[in-house]
Amino acid sequence: MSTKQNPNKDSTSPKPNKKNGRGSRQRKGRRSGNNGGGGQKGPDPFVVEAISRAKSRFDQQPPAMGLPAELNPPPQNVKLKWKLKPVPKQVEREVHDIVCRPGEFGFLDDERVDEIAELLGKRPISLEQALSLRAALNQEKAVFSHGRLQRRAQEMKRKYEGGESVVSLSKRYDFPPVNLFRAILSARNWSKNRIKETLREPERKLSERDLKEFRKAEAEDRVTHVNQAETHHAADLFEKVLCNHFEANGVRFRTQTDLLKEQVAEEGRPVRTPDLLMLDHVEINGVPVAWIDAKHFYGANLSFQRKKTQKQVNRYVEEWGHGAIIYRHGFCDGLKLKGAILLDASPIDLTELIEHNQRLNDERINQD
Length: 368
What we know:
Number of strands: 6
Strand content: 5-15%
Largest sheet: 6 strands, mixed
Number of helices: 16
Radius of gyration: 27 Å
Helix content: 40-55%
Order of helices and strands: HHEHHHHHHHHHHHEHEEHEEH
Structural class: alpha/beta
Shape: globular
């Protein structure tokens, strides 16, 4: 045992004061860039440049893509007020568990819809918004679970060939039914191309049991099902009523169809095709809007959806500057996109779209 004493033991000399020294808090402040200047950030250079480009786009030579060399009359100044009512971020988080259950990827029956409506209570989110949020959550789940599903594909194949149904496996393991069915085919060493071609003509290329299971999987899957015709038609109708709204406000624009035809003729493929390309100087709530893209869903504060939309916004900003995204079912106030303001559909007459959706719902009920 050593008899050497610790020179600091029982010492009366004052200990260093970490609060006054270079403690962890001060180091943390340096890492975050806080140099005591108040921490106020200046305007985002990306947004500043986007706004500048939107304001000067008609002066650009050669003209930006899709813009005529001359406009007669010249671009007019149109200022619009747009009342917004975004869903609070905390409310969206609370609704996650209400609308999304493991293995629930298909249409909801009336009883489940009524249950969701009751559980929403007085939260400032509509039933339509909540159901659209459910679709976004399931879509994100489908994307993020893809790797896990591929790793378990052989296991799913064994259970399926042992007699368990695709829908049963979907509910048990929380995989979208159609993705699960594709994984089973992949585990049989089918190529991606063979799977794609087979599911285009399932009656001709699937066995009796596989066809039956595939049809059941499609019926229980509104996320990764093959036929998206209804969704696309509803989106087209939303774009149509959006055009009607801006025409009624005296705004000139080119449509996605116009841009698509022109770009295919000139470039051989679509390059940048927002739903509306403004031919006037439009400001909405004081912000320049050079283009608009319509989304026939709720703008959820989810990373997958946000990143996908931001990439699209970046392409449009590069060509025309600042624009806008309009969400049919509103958006979360936590969702932020650089280069575009977020709008909801509250000022737009949606009568035609609502009637269309009602007809589809009635047809679905009659089929059941």
